[in-house]
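Workshop exercise sheet. Pairs work together: one partner reads the sequence aloud, the other fills in the structure field after running the prediction. Swap roles for the next sheet.
Pair: D.N. / O.F.
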Amino acid sequence: MTRFSPFEDTLWYATAPAAPETFALEGTIKADVCIVGAGYAGLTTALELAKAGVSVAVIEAQEIGFGGSGRNAGHCTPTFTHYTPDDLRRVLGAPWAERLIHRQTRANDRVGQMIRDYGIDCEWDQSGYVQGALNPGHLKTLQAKTDQYNAVGAKTRMLDAAEVQQVTGSPRFLGGWFHEEAGAVNALAYARGLGRAVMSEGGRILTRSPVTGCERIGTGWRVSTERGAVLADKVIFTTGAYTVAGWPKLEETFKIMRVFVAATQPLSPETRAEVLPRNTTMHDGRGDIYVYKYDGAGRIVASMFPMGRRGRDIAYTKQVMSDRLTWLHPQIRETLRWEYLWFGELDMQRRTIPRLYDLAPGVVAMTGLSGRGVPTGSMLGGILSEWALGLPPQDLGLKIEPLKSQPFYMSFAPQAHLRMYRLRDNITAKRQGAPLPPHA
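Structure field:
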């Protein structure tokens, strides 16, 4: 699987509790539902089905959480990154927008409940999320965000400059948006915990078993691997950006975009008392994002997108990460050492909304999470399990669509947008007399 970034480089691989014992698929087994992909979406789907008494088998090419579920930065903020609720209403229309808004904004209820019900040891901390405003123009946007999310039942509020500094420790922000229901996890620990939960409910997880094909057999389906097969009535593909074979052209429904995450050494108690003292997740508010939080051991875990030298030149990349963090928090006096730096792949689509594809009678696929992370992957299990349990398509939380390839321009459009966001923010800051962060 050389196409994908090394999994063992991640902080989560080094610190998560051990994975549950699983085995490769050998021979032929039967299940009511076969799920391809052991990430958040596949595992939460399997968990719901197993709890409902459905025989379920999850097939994974590598190991539990190998894809985005084990590589993401661990943020769990139940929002939409590129769309406001009003945007979604224009894009999706009724009733689909309201259904998705409800599922996404209540996703952390679901995450927290699963963690509690199954005793998942994953550093779950629901201490909130702050998106800062580095120039006056950002404040109006954040106020609109507050109004729209609160109108659908989320618990958010605006912070003034003094409150942002009190919550985050940074003196740089003119104000900010606080989402008190947001949280954070050890990404791989959460995935492995979901795997244990599935197995505790009687679900089967077969790892190191790449799917080689899916063919119609009578009224059901045969999902084949190198050394075995699952005979199932229904099949769900949840492989996202890590899709390889399995169904013709499924990998054409998205374009790969990379992201990187880095983690420092555990910071001193003195620094932790002044930097993110309330353990919130912090977004610096720029379109070319810099998002950071602590892990359970007191490391700063920060993420950005590659751009130019950033992401290619590792020494330079770490310098950018340090310079941005110390600019935001000038009280940091210790030398930052970025002891972990890893990459992940995102399944980007023109519309950054999860897509549910009708592949054949009894077969669907989910791709296009577009970096939506923990809450979205977790809430999708509810939608996919309802499909498998026979809920009519018109009543599902997502509209079922025919398979559609992404246009060629999506190979470069997301990066172009990031550069546009950076330029826009820089121009706005200069016009409004706001300081620019280093390497802006």
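Discussion prompt: The mean pLDDT is 95. What would you look at next?
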